[in-house]
Amino acid sequence: MTQILEFIYAHITYIYLIVLMIFVGIELISHVPSVLHTPLMSGANAIHGVVLIGALIVLGKAPEDDYLSLGLGFVGVILGTLNVVGGFVVTDRMLDMFKKKKK
Fold first, then answer.
1. Are 48 and 83 in contact (CB under 8 A)?
2. Percent of the chain with pLDDT over 90
3. From CA 79, how far away is CA 72, in angstroms rounded?
4. Which stretches of 1-103 are DSSP H helices?
5. Alpha carbon separation from 43 to 18, 23, 67, 79, 83 (Å, rounded)
6. How many alpha carbons fall within 13 Å on the CB side of residue 25?
7. pLDDT tens figures, 21-66
8. What does the pLDDT read at residue 70?
9. N or C: which end of the chain has fewer CB within 10 A?
10. How many angstroms separate the first and last alpha carbons of the chain?
C-alpha cells in the first residue's frame, strides 16, 4: 500500500493532468453538434494511423523471446488497422449520402 501511495505522490502532477484531460475531452465532445460528429470522428480514426506505425515499430524492435511485446504489437497492429479502415468506411458512407441518387 505504501508503494502505491509513494507512486501517486511522485506522479501527482501527471495524475492531475490526466484527470483534467478527461474533463476537457468530455466537455469538448458534448458540445460538438451532431452534424459535425461523424466527419470529425472519421477524420480522427484516419489519423490514428500513428497507432499503426507505433505498433509496427514495437513489433520490429521486440526481441524474438519477448512474447508480451510481440503480442501487444500484434494486437496494436490489428486494432490500428481496424480503426484506420473504419474511419475511411465511415467517411465513404457519409459522402455517399450527399450524392444524387440515380433513377
1. yes
2. 20
3. 10
4. 2-10, 12-30, 34-47, 49-61, 67-96
5. 24, 22, 33, 16, 11
6. 6
7. 999 989 987 887 877 776 777 777 767 788 888 888 888 888 989 8
8. 87
9. C
10. 70
